[in-house]
Amino acid sequence: EVQLAESGGDLVQPGGSLRLSCVASGFTFSRYEMNWIRQAPGKGLEWLAYISDSGGMIYYADSVKGRFTISRDNARNSLFLQMNTLRAEDTAIYYCARAYSLDFWGRGTLVTVSS
Amino acid sequence: QSVLTQPPSASGTPGQGVTISCSGSNSNIGSNYVYWFQQLPGTAPKLLMFRNDQRPSGVPDRFSGSKSGTSASLAISGLRPEDEADYYCASWDDSLRVPWVFGGGTKLTVL
C-alpha cells in the first residue's frame, strides 16, 4: 500500500525556518517525481515545488522561489522541504504528493507562522 | 486569484446529476491534460480523474470527466451524500513554466 507521511510542521515566528519531511513506503520511491503542495486555512490548493526522480530537475512556484528548497534522499525514501524566511501567509497544511499525476497524497503537516 | 476558474459552489439532491466546470486557457487546459481531485471534509485531496477522463482504480463510474478546448468538466451522476466534498481541477501550464496550476475549488453540497 502506497503511503506518504509528512512531519515537521510546527508553530514558528515570522522570519524563522522549518524543515518538513515526507517519508514514503509501499512503492519504489526512487522511480517517482515528487511534489509539495499547500493549503492555507479555508483556501484552495497551491502547488509549491517539484523534484524529479533523480533530483536533477527542480521547479518552484514564484511565491516560494528563493525561500524554499525541495530535496530528496532516495536511500531513505524521503522528501524534504526546507523553508526559510517564513511569513504569516505561509501558514498552511503542507502535503507531499507523488508523481506528475499527483496520484497519492500524504495527510499533511500543519505549519503556523505567527508571533 | 486562481489560474483555472471553477464555480465556488454546486449542489444537488441524492440521485441527481451535477456538473462542475473548469475554465482555463491555451497554455494550460488547451494544451495539457486535466486532472480532478476530491477533498472530503478534514482529509487530504485524492486523485479522482486523470488525463481528462481516466478514473483511477476504485473511483466509481458515476464520476466522469471531459475536456473541450480550454474548458473541462467533471460530471457526477446518481449523487450520494458521501460525494459532498470540495472538488479541484488542475493542469500543467506551459507559459507559467510550472508543473501545476489549480482551480479555486468547488464545494459540492448534497441537499
Can you offer a commentary on this structure?
The complex is a heterodimer of chains A (115) and B (111). Chain A has 115 residues and is mostly beta strands. Chain A has no helices and ten strands. In chain A, the strands form two sheets. Chain A has a six-stranded mixed sheet, with no helix packed on it. A four-stranded antiparallel sheet of chain A has the order 1-3-8-7, with no helix packed on it. In chain A, β4 (34-39) and β5 form a beta hairpin. Chain A is globular. The relative contact order of chain A is 0.31. Chain B has 111 residues and is mainly β. Helix content of chain B is 0%, strand content 46%. In chain B, the strands form two sheets. In chain B, strands 1, 3, 4, 7, 8 and 9 form a six-stranded mixed sheet that branches. The A-B interface holds A 35, 37, 44-47, 50, 59, 61, 95, 97, 100-108 and B 2, 35, 37, 43-47, 50-51, 56, 88, 90, 97-105.
Give the averaged pLDDT of chain A, no decimals: 96
Helical residue percent of chain B? Answer: under 10%
Low-confidence stretches of chain B: none
Multimeric status of the protein: heterodimer
Major sheet attributes of chain A: 6 strands, mixed
Strand order of the largest sheet of chain A: 2-10-9-4-5-6
Structural class call of chain B reads mainly beta
Q: Total number of helical segments of chain B? A: 0
Secondary structure topology:
The complex is a heterodimer of chains A (115) and B (111).
Chain A: E1 3-7, E2 11-12, E3 18-25, E4 34-39, E5 45-51, E6 58-60, E7 68-73, E8 78-83, E9 92-98, E10 109-113
Parallel strand pairs in A: 2-10
Antiparallel strand pairs in A: 1-3, 3-8, 4-5, 4-9, 5-6, 7-8, 9-10
Chain B: E1 9-12, E2 18-23, E3 34-39, E4 46-49, E5 63-68, E6 71-76, E7 85-93, E8 98-102, E9 106-110
Parallel strand pairs in B: 1-9
Antiparallel strand pairs in B: 2-6, 3-4, 3-7, 5-6, 7-8, 7-9
